[in-house]
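Bug #2210: token dump truncated for NOL1/NOP2/Sun domain family member 4?
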Amino acid sequence: MFSLHHGSHSNELALEYFDFAYPLIFHRHWPSIRLALLSLPKPVALLNPYSLSNKNIKQKLIEQGSIDMLRFDNEKLREDFNLIQKQISNSDNEYQIKKLFEQKENRRLLGTSDLVDEQEDINEEEEQEEEINEDDDMNTFNQPEPVKRLDEIYKLALEQQAQSVIKGNVVSIVDDDKERDYRKIPPSWHVYTFPRSNMSRFEPAKTDELGLLDYYCMDGACILPIIALDVQPFHSVLDLCSAPGGKALNIFHMCPYIQLTCNDINGSRWKRLIEVFTQTVPKDTLAKHVKLVKGDGCLFGERQPASFDRVLVDVPCTSDRHALITAFNIFSKKRIQERVELPAYQRKLLESAIRACKPGGIVVYSTCTLAPVQNEGVVEQAIENLASTSNKKSRGYQGKVPIKCEVISTQSLEKHYAYFFDFYAKTRYGSLVLPHISNNFGPLYFCKIRRIN
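Reproduced locally. Full output below:
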């Protein structure tokens, strides 16, 4: 079982916690996810359209064997991959049927055996009632039950979060994106990666005569929230938690004819955000189209209500992959209180993002964690809070009608990019990229939300 006392460093605590919590959610898939998390991530190269050596670099990347994942159309690879996925799915179904048959047979044998003690039968029934059903695990499970050796504050946090149930039926889901053609990609946006199971690495990016980088390396899953955001020319776009800047850079390369506001509150991360843009975008273009702001994202919705056509809110989270390689992360004993308050903070950021969005506009919520309480749990609670009548009495919103939202399904996006990403099949809202050793992207969760009124 998980215990704070086993690890001496916060990265060890993070792994021990994941080993306790995530098998209850992902079951037999956890070992492969764990292996991927502990292995080197697979970066992609975001080509810089402003680099003077853009064309030469594009040809060089192709010669190295990389492919533009936004324009990937190799039908042979897709067919081979889909066949493998179908075989895996059939294997999973056979496994589930076999498992159910074994459980039924065991119950039958136990029920007819004279050697089984009556009290043992009662205990077994109680244990079965407490088990998390695999079909409903994302719906009913958010955090593990506390154990005796946990610190008292951690006990309290786990008890409180365990009570937070993802209902899965309180937010309306629409399938507006099913007719969207994901092959129509803006000419300025190119993202290169190596084919599945190819572990090659990109060389460090070089600078051109103007000092601009040829390309920017990042996690490939970062493109998915940007595709879901569906930015159009002349949109006003807000990246609420923008640092270190990879997703904001994708937004700008996807559609440079916009007004982009990038906000972050963290000082060192905000400096990194400035560096990323100054190393990739010419000064005059940056001054004309990008506004860099340092402020509290939770207050943006009050200060600039209904001001943006599109809002990306990539919230601070437990950063599962990062937590396994850094010594002082959010699993540190000195940061317990911060971790306890994290889901509430994420919810406030999402509510602020929705308030800052224009009616009819789109908000995309994203994290880099596998934890349901930080993903679907936050989405559901934020939308419920804004829709409730109590929202009228919140500070700065006296007398205003509640805000209604709906989740837009991203299943068609999942289907289009299934060759590159392993998506979890049991999310209630949004999409979750699972790390996999053959294409080691993620974890990344994202959910597309439309503000209705």
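Output looks complete on our side. The chain has one domain: 10-73+169-451. Marking as cannot-reproduce; reopen if the truncation happens again.
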